[in-house]
User: Fold this.
Amino acid sequence: TSLGMDANDSFDVVCKLIKAFTEAFMNDDRSLVAFLASNPDTAMYVNEVADVFISYAWKGSFGETMDALFGKFNDQDDVFIWMDVACVDQHRAAIEDIQFDTWAKTFREALKTIGKAILVLTPAQEPIAMTRSWCCFEWVIITQANLQVDFCVSPQDEVALIQKMQSGMGFSNF
Assistant:
């Protein structure tokens, strides 16, 4: 991909990059977004409320996920996305035990505030998110919260999908 991160899934990115980057940040919230918000040079890139929630599979290529999102938003300026790798304190998330019902209610209310979700379906031929129970849970909550929903695939997958349809192969062989 254009990001050069093909071998890294989101778990790798969190463990090797985000947690390492935010480790020394001494705050109650050590998320990447909290770190950026606390810095005068980067605070302008953080909004109080996101414009869109991103649902994607941690198991998939992080680079491909980013390519899909860049393709989706390349003609839009100043879109603030809610993506768990950046918005959740990954240090605390790894050790904190939260009651599921409490968390689900908080999640649903947060999604209602955001109002829009993008489902990242990569790779398009067999989207990993469709096989991950957490993504399916997110989609249920997105539906319950009556969010506006859209999806995206990587630009490469979009081209391949169009070529397959134009050649008469349709969806059954894709």
In short: Strands lie at 52-55, 81-82, 116-120, 148-152. The chain has eight helices and four strands. The chain has a mean pLDDT of 85. The helical segments are 10-22, 32-38, 62-73, 84-87, 90-93, 100-114, 133-144, 155-166.
